[in-house]
Request: fold
Amino acid sequence: MKAVLQRVTRASVEVEHQVVGRIGLGLLVLLGVAKGDGPVDVQFMVEKLRTFRMFGDEQGKMNRSLVEVGGAVLLVSQFTLLGNTANGRRPSFEEAAPPDEAKRLYEEVASGLRAHGTPVETGIFAAHMIVELANDGPVTFVLDSRKKTER
Reply:
């Protein structure tokens, strides 16, 4: 799984002119599910999203986690994170998981966060979405559940 985490003061996602998810302070997470991802990748993302220290403390240093600041997650599916842009002018999405599998694992990440008490809003899987955010900092990180250096 690959994820782009953006620290936000607010974020929302709209589908067909209707807001389907909205948060205040927290993380906008764009999540891409790769072929071969499974429970270990879900667990990695759930724990990392909850505990990764990317919020400022009293001195402005990134020493606080989402849990510590009482933030929420806006989780948006983003298969294009798995796009291979190395050749030609059009990306290849061969590394992306099939839609049914990707949706199941995306929903497991949302459920895992909720099971730990994290408020979660979502987009609509595979829909055309308009995402708006106020990136705080800006602070943005990329996570990859398959990179051992991040585990």
Observations:
- The radius of gyration is 15 Å.
- The beta strands are 2-15, 18-23, 26-32, 55-56, 62-64, 72-77, 120-122, 130-144.
- The first strand starts at residue 2 and ends at 15.
